[in-house]
Specification:
alpha/beta; Zincin-like; Neutral Protease, domain 2; 5-stranded mixed sheet; 3-stranded antiparallel sheet; binds zinc ion
């Protein structure tokens, strides 16, 4: 329950169940029905306007300062088809709503929240440069928000999956394929210091870019090994099995084992617990 002076718009985590103006102040109530990690709770207050977006059966909205309207509407125009593609790839979107807030402030990076994402004014220039990030934040609703982490050392289950979703979207849109992006980023990774353990990177490195890219590469190596149909079946089973719960790396390995005849130990051990960069199948 939040109140703010009239003229301000409040967006909080959850579904808005109440709004009333009294004595010049607006009062909002939000209710969050799904289990939510505390880091995914957010409260945004500003002089915002709202544009509803049809995202299939999901209620979508863009919330932004009026001056940014043109850029926001252009840069997020791909959301409906992105939602359709991700639902086909990962299973049903886990929440009743998806709200994107664009703040008047410049933000270094966008950030996911439960059923929401927050972008900065610098991400809404209207020139389509942020589509990769739009895909990344939307993918977190499945990977990180609905399926949560049992502990932070398993962060690749959030960031590797969200990064791989960027590559899948690129491929789907007729841009560079996931395979060509994987090979490009693998070459880049080979030139980086080999001092990170993806399966347990430690607090200082948990948001290191290598966690994102090596995590995505792990998924690509798995996809190349098991084939497309089993790979996407695995992603959908992962999302369905651990929906609104928490999971860890061993849970994912155990589920993946059911999708291939041969052992996956070498693949997972190499990518998750080695420091050198394995070859892609
Ligand atoms: Zn992320």
């Amino acid at each position: 329950r939040v109140s703010a002076e009239q003229g301000y718009t409040v967006v909080g985590t959850g579904v808005q169940t109440h709004y009333r103006v009294s004595s010049g102040r607006g009062q909002w109530v939000f209710e969050q029905a799904e289990p939510t990690a505390s880091y995914l709770v957010t409260l945004q207050i500003g002089r915002y306007v709202r544009t509803e977006l049809a995202l299939g059966r999901v209620t979508g909205a863009l919330v932004y300062p009026p001056a940014l309207k043109e850029g926001v509407l252009a840069d997020f125009s791909g959301l409906p088809s992105m939602m359709e593609f991700f639902e086909a790839s990962f299973g049903p979107y886990p929440f009743p709503e998806y709200t994107v807030i664009v703040t008047p402030d410049v933000l270094e990076i966008p950030l996911e929240a439960q059923a929401m994402a927050i972008f900065g004014s610098n991400h809404a220039g209207g020139v389509g440069l942020v589509e990769r990030l739009v895909a990344h934040e939307l993918a977190h609703q499945w990977f990180g928000n609905s399926v949560g982490l049992a502990s932070w050392k398993h962060i690749w289950l959030n960031e590797g999956f969200a990064c791989y979703s960027e590559w899948l979207w690129s491929e789907h849109q007729g841009g560079p394929s996931a395979d060509s992006l994987a090979r490009q980023f693998r070459r880049h990774l080979v030139g980086q210091p080999a001092d990170i353990i993806l399966g347990d990177p430690g607090a200082a490195l948990m948001f290191d870019d290598r966690v994102y890219k090596r995590g995505a590469l792990t998924l690509h190596a798995l996809r190349r090994t098991v084939g497309d149909e089993p790979f996407f079946g695995l992603l959908r089973e992962w999302v369905a099995t651990y929906r609104f719960g928490v999971a860890d790396t061993d849970d994912f390995r155990a589920l993946a084992a059911g999708y291939v005849e041969g052992p996956l130990e070498q693949l997972f051990d190499g990518w998750l617990f080695g420091t050198s960069v394995p070859r892609l199948p």
